[in-house]
Specification:
The chain has 376 residues and is α+β, with helices and mostly antiparallel strands. It has 3 domains: 107 residues, no CATH class; 85 residues, no CATH class; 140 residues, Nuclear Transport Factor 2, Chain: A (Roll). Helix content is 22%, strand content 28%. Strands 9-8-5-6-7-11-10 form a 7-stranded antiparallel β-sheet. Strands 18-19-20 form a 3-stranded antiparallel β-sheet. The radius of gyration is 22 Å and the shape is globular.
């Protein structure tokens, strides 16, 4: 029997918890809502919940009948709380109206941002070495590259941003059934990534860290920027440019900025003919907009587009979407939020044939990004 409650999907629950640093958003509550459990060496105890600002079902506190199910289960309607305070706010909507809960959430996340950036007394800013690592499309984890020899890399993982240990296990079990474009490791601190040759293996260190070993394939070759082919010139409105009554074209080095923009502007899953092509910027912004995670996730996505080959069926060919980008050095967002779906950014890349290359790029952030189906 189907429940009449509109529950948050797992990605929303995990995102709102991360944005709150797994701490209760009730003012003055010092409670951390996740920690080790004595049940087993890998046991984790959780005492936090993604609470609904507007109730999940009719009759609940602050329920709005005119909200759609999509709005009711979105991250905008979620606030992270310890179990005790989540029960408390659902006892009295006069004392705890929706406007107050949204303000608590805003203030709590603002404090988390300040701590993460090191601008508050509690400095928890991640170092360059302690950055994001992705294993396939479902797993994003904070960690670092601990060592390696030849084609074998050793990763030390700390905290899951997307996915969990079960996702890592499923990634290994389903590895042979995955598309080649979904078998990869990306390392933000390197600005680079590789396709995996075999499923990852993992173990716990004596200190409790998750140690993952991956075997990677040879680095996919890139072309020189001067060898980029001819394309129609595209304007910032995603339409063609005219000059003298004709469409204009770009090629070689002049095509590089457009190549980067088009790969980022197209959302993965948007095209029914090329479902694996494009970026996940819309999805990441929807979950992590206006947090310090966002620029790191965008950098991670650019690394994927620079290093993981895309297989085109017609005509059959294989190439990295960015084609000539050797490494992604940095991504800097120049605004807190997009204006009319456009977010200004500054990217710094190592480009084959040019060396270090910097450009200001408008990122397209769709209001309703296409759903990204689980691939595991």
């Amino acid at each position: 029997m189907r429940s009449n409650r509109d529950e948050f999907p797992p990605k929303v629950r995990q995102a709102v918890a991360l944005r709150a640093q797994y701490r209760c958003s009730f003012p003055g509550c010092p409670r951390v809502t996740v920690g080790p459990s004595d049940e087993s060496p890998m046991g984790v105890a959780r005492v936090g919940v993604a609470a609904h600002i507007h109730a999940a079902s009719p009759g609940g506190k602050r329920y709005l009948e005119n909200m759609t199910a999509e709005q009711r289960t979105s991250i905008d309607n979620a606030i992270w709380m310890c179990v005790e305070h989540s029960v408390l706010i659902d006892q009295d909507e006069v004392t705890y109206p929706a406007e107050k809960l949204r303000e608590w959430k805003r203030q709590h996340e603002a404090r988390a941002v300040a701590e993460l950036r090191g601008t508050s007394p509690q400095q928890t800013e991640m170092s360059d070495a302690q950055d994001l690592i992705a294993l396939g499309p479902e797993l994003v984890v904070t960690g670092d590259l601990a060592g390696g020899s030849g084609s074998v890399w050793q990763l030390r993982l700390e905290h899951f941003v997307s996915g969990d240990l079960q996702s890592l296990i499923r990634f290994g079990e389903a590895f042979e059934e995955l598309k080649p474009a979904d078998r990869y490791v990306l390392v933000n601190s390197l600005g680079d990534g590789r396709v995996l040759a075999r499923p990852p293996t993992w173990r716990r260190s004596d200190e409790g860290h998750l140690l993952v070993q991956v075997e990677v394939m040879e680095r996919f070759p890139r072309k020189r920027a001067q060898e980029l082919g001819t394309d129609l010139a595209i304007g910032s409105d995603r339409g063609g440019l005219f000059q003298g009554g004709r469409f204009t074209t770009v090629s070689g080095v002049q095509a590089l900025p457009q190549k980067i923009r088009l790969c980022l502007w197209n959302q993965r899953g948007e095209s029914p003919f090329h479902s694996d092509f494009g970026s996940r910027l819309g999805e990441y912004y929807h979950l992590f907009g206006q947090t310090p995670w966002l620029d790191r996730l965008i950098k991670l996505e650019m690394i994927r587009l620079a290093s993981v080959p895309y297989r085109q069926s017609s005509p059959p060919q294989e190439y990295t979407p960015f084609q000539c980008v050797d490494r992604v050095i940095s991504v800097e967002l120049l605004a807190d939020e997009p204006t009319k779906q456009w977010m200004p950014s500054r990217v710094q890349l190592d480009v084959v044939g040019l060396g270090r290359w910097t450009d200001d790029i408008l990122l397209f952030i769709p209001q309703n990004p296409p759903p990204v189906m689980s691939r595991i």
